[in-house]
């Protein structure tokens, strides 16, 4: 698994769906210098754990917007699958009401570039391509800053849903560091004391 933290987020142009609109060329570059981005991958449309995550991001969308963060979802489904899922009511297993964009990684190149693609293509003894496993995305999440640099990543196996609270906590920690130059210890929450390194390299708590 590649560690992308500290590196430029892989760029891409792909079809995406936002509400009723299919976007022909969606790119994260539109947010450079303007917004942070939470890019999260999920395995499949019309499944079980995935809609709980997509709905949860929507429930907290105001929290992300207040922090200047654009939420973007991505799976290896087509834009038509995304569109159909977005137009299916929640009571019927759909994600109707989700307002942030969903990227269609139908060629699986985005998942590959972010190193969250499960399964792999191998050659048999006759040089025929075989697929081992299923070529869908793990539950990867990447926090990208306004300069397009990945500052946080987490990847879960498919049965394991993520924590929206932890995602927001990490955003708060990054923004606190950027604004104050103070580092945030384990389990730090917004409004708590942070830390600063002295010239000897020893971190000390700051009192408010």
TrEMBL record:
Any Pfam family the entry gives: AhpC-TSA
Taxonomy, superkingdom: Bacteria
Keywords assigned: Oxidoreductase
Database matches in CDD domains: PRX_Typ2cys (cd03015)
Domain Thioredoxin span(s) in chain numbering: 3-176
Function, in words: Thiol-specific peroxidase that catalyzes the reduction of hydrogen peroxide and organic hydroperoxides to water and alcohols, respectively. Plays a role in cell protection against oxidative stress by detoxifying peroxides.
Family affiliation: Belongs to the peroxiredoxin family. AhpC/Prx1 subfamily.
UniProt name for this protein: Thioredoxin peroxidase
Organism: Rubritalea spongiae
